[in-house]
Amino acid sequence: MFKKIFGTNKASKGKKEEKILPWMALNSVEQLNTMQEASKTKTQLIFKHSTRCGISRMVINQFIELYDETTNADLYYLDLLSYREVSNETGYKFQVMHQSPQLLVIRNGVVVAHASHGAINDLDLSRFV
């Protein structure tokens, strides 16, 4: 009777394979200089994420699902709560007002695009790589 009302147990269904992105942890201010230099030859992406925010969690899950793994870019993950100093310096260095969640696209040493919340998944990253 419960199965008819609530459906089947998720554990009994075939598990969907989890997509793993090539994230690199952004956890030091020094990495920002390295990224800025690397952006002269390869697009750099920074995903700023708040681990305590439900909206941020939803957006990063959508981003992971939609991300084209053939994108020729370095993909960095910044945990805003654990690395607040890095988050602050990211805003100063690249002249972008802090938002969360937020995606920054860096080419030739500068931010060429950025988006926050649901607009992150609307960015056409292929235009920047």
Helix and strand succession?
HEHEHEHEE
- Helix-strand makeup class: alpha/beta
Global shape: globular
CATH class placement = Alpha Beta
* CATH second-level architecture: 3-Layer(aba) Sandwich
C-alpha Rg (nearest Å): 17 Å
Strand share of the residues?
15-25%
Distance between the termini: 53 Å
Q: How many domain modules?
A: 1
Average pLDDT, all residues: 90
Structure description:
The chain is an alpha/beta fold and 129 residues long. The protein has a single domain, classed as Glutaredoxin, CATH 3.40.30. 30% of the residues lie in helices and 23% in strands. It is built from four helices and five strands; from the N terminus they run αβαβαβαββ. α3 links the parallel β2 and β3. The protein is globular. The N terminus is likely disordered.
